[in-house]
Design a protein that fits this description.
The chain is mainly α and about 600 residues long. The chain has three domains: about 110 residues, de novo design (two linked rop proteins); about 240 residues, TIM Barrel; about 220 residues, no CATH class. Helix content is about 65%, strand content about 5%. It contains 30 helices and six strands. It has a six-stranded parallel β-sheet. Helix 10 crosses helix 12, helix 19 crosses helix 24 and helix 19 crosses helix 25. The longest helix is centred in the middle third of the chain and has 33 residues. The chain starts with a helix and ends with a helix.
């Protein structure tokens, strides 16, 4: 701000300031004669320069928390900048107005006084338990530690909003949202956490739909939300903008990749229609991961394949783990990625793209439903096989992955993974990729295509339907990173030939059908850059995988007799190879 001000050397006689700018200067004089006197010494006949220099002093006061002269919000600073901009434009200094001054306006609009926004997320069951605890014992009673944590979280949000502005912390996401009551619970807890109404923070409460049944019933929950007075009040404050979050992980683990992707596509389409019907300015947030089983893959293609109205020139997604390093670790790659996604976000709302997505979805949806039914049955058949979870824990480095100092949450819910419900999705997908199987990305699709038996229709869908093409391309990429020879070594760790046979049969079927649909003789044949990169990396990853599986075999077979020192050596080797395989394969978690 000071640098821009020093360069605004426009003399008042020839670049007459607007009445609005003169009023701003008078307001600054009344606020601090010290600041304005110092500015006048430097810029006696340059009012635009003087005003900007005082604004810079006020920013410094904001950092130092000097109450009398500080800006109390970024919007207040933004208003002053726009006064300067309008005055410059009116007196003919258009380059200055829409050059340096516009640049700082964009910075303030993007980052405010807070740089980055914080978002908070908690499970709906935790809120329900906290409310029950408060109702039974009172807000100042003997509350459970988790209840105290919930209350402290809301109080922290209130403190952050007072210190840095409301934009820094106003989004609160509810995991496993199953009813509008879960939204009402958050608003009630926020009010109970404060003694005075004026201290309650402004919140945008965001429902997160992630399990299959939640995705299928999401519109009913949203309809119920609109009946809540607190939601209607908030919509009036935000000009009817509402965020809804979709989870890609739990639906994939529980129902299979094909069923999950179709359920998510359908949910987006139905939510977009609901938003249009209720005059809602919708922002869909996608809880994607790096792995194909968690919605990973090229982001720009994914954006262009979204249903009509679901993007609406806004695309918000989670970026985490290896994806952050891969996409943003290099400045040039980061800029290219952001430009690519931004272009796709704008292009997706073009009438021609919306028309293509809508018409092809209608044309091929019956085919997709048949694939959905068959793949879902095949996937559940595998998961419901007796003792599947212990077998999975044996043939993959699941236990060892849980020991790595990575991830934002534990690998398992509770003390042990006795069933798939105990297991979080990220280690589920991560472990299959470590075993060079990538089962979470493709299992069930081969059987579904075999039962459909119509290659011409599948080829037509791949050529015409952007969503299906993106889905198949991502599966082809996952298959390219599998290795049946190495996979057999992992599966031999478990004494279950029946389960191994199911996995290999489905792997071969899926590979056969995906290659036939795409028209390739081997995976990624036509994708020269990606295909070459995968083929170059795989031999190095193979060496790491073989070292890992041999170490796992020793640990699994001789764990009881192995000395602690020897066991620690093997564990160190396993953890090192896990990191190496993940870096080599990418799209793993």
């Amino acid at each position: 701000c000071r640098r821009i001000g020093r360069n605004l050397t426009l003399e008042a006689t020839y670049s007459k300031p607007s009445a609005e700018l003169i009023n701003l200067w008078n307001h600054q004089v009344e606020m601090s004669t010290q600041y304005t006197a110092r500015a006048e010494l430097i810029s006696e006949h340059e009012p635009h320069r003087a005003v900007m220099l005082v604004m810079a002093d006020r920013l410094n006061a904001t950092v130092r928390r000097i109450t009398d002269t500080m800006y109390h919000s970024a919007d207040e600073f933004l208003d002053d900048l726009r006064v300067v901009q309008r005055s410059l434009a009116a007196c003919g200094a258009v380059r200055a107005a829409y050059g340096p001054v516009q640049t700082i306006i964009w910075q303030v609009e993007s980052f405010g006084f807070h740089m980055v926004e914080m978002e908070f997320r908690q499970h709906s069951v935790v809120h329900a338990r906290a409310l029950k605890d408060i109702h039974e014992n009172g807000i100042h009673g003997d509350l459970q530690p988790m209840t105290r944590e919930v209350i402290d979280t809301f109080r922290a949000i209130g403190s952050i909003q007072k210190r840095y502005g409301k934009k820094m912390a106003h989004r609160y996401i509810i995991s496993f949202t199953k009813s509008a009551q879960h939204v009402a619970d958050v608003f009630e807890l926020a009010h109970l956490s404060f003694a005075h109404e004026e201290d309650v923070p402004e919140l945008d409460v965001i429902p997160l739909f992630e399990q299959l049944e939640d995705l299928e019933g999401c519109v009913d929950v949203l309809d119920q939300m609109l009946t809540l007075p607190v939601v209607q009040k908030r919509l009036a404050q935000t000009n009817r903008r509402m965020e809804v979050m979709l989870g890609y992980s739990d639906s994939s683990k529980d129902a299979g990749p094909t069923t999950a992707m179709l359920a998510l596509h359908s949910a987006q389409e139905r939510i977009a229609k609901w938003a249009e019907k209720n005059d809602i300015d919708l922002v869909l947030m996608h809880g994607r991961g790096g792995a194909v089983g968690r919605g990973g893959g090229p982001a720009n293609k994914a954006v262009l394949a979204q249903p009509k109205g679901s993007v609406n020139c806004f695309f918000k997604l989670t970026e985490q783990g290896e994806v952050i390093f891969a996409r943003y670790g290099n400045r040039t790659l980061a800029q290219r990625h952001v430009e690519s996604v931004a272009a796709a976000t704008l292009l997706q709302s073009a009438p021609s793209v919306e028309k293509t997505n809508t018409e092809t979805t209608q044309k091929f949806w019956d085919m997709a439903e048949k694939l959905n039914t068959a793949s879902h049955e095949r996937y559940l058949d595998l998961l419901n096989t007796e003792d599947f979870t212990p077998w999975f824990s044996t043939v993959t480095p699941l236990t060892e992955v849980g020991l790595l100092p990575i991830g934002s949450r534990p690998a398992k819910r509770g003390l042990g993974a006795k069933s798939l419900d105990d297991l979080r999705t990220i280690p589920w997908i991560f472990s299959w990729s470590q075993a060079r199987i990538n089962l979470a990305a493709w299992y069930g699709l081969g059987t579904a295509c075999e039962q459909l038996g119509d290659l011409d229709q599948l080829k037509a869908a791949y050529q015409e339907w952007p969503f299906f093409r993106t889905f198949i391309d991502n599966i082809e990429m996952s298959i390219a990173k599998t290795d049946q020879r190495i996979a057999k070594m992992y599966l031999h760790l478990g004494d279950r030939d029946d389960l191994s046979e199911k996995v290999f049969t489905e792997m071969q079927l899926t590979r056969k059908w995906v290659l036939a649909i795409v028209g390739d003789e081997w995976p990624l044949q036509r994708r020269r850059v990606l295909g070459c990169a995968v083929r170059v990396r795989n031999p190095y990853v193979d060496a790491l995988s073989i070292a890992q599986v041999r170490a796992l075999r020793e640990v699994r077979m001789n764990q009881d007799e192995m000395a602690e020192e020897k066991k620690a050596e093997y564990m160190s080797l396993i953890l090192s190879t896990v990191t190496g395989v993940s870096a080599g394969l990418q799209n793993t978690g």
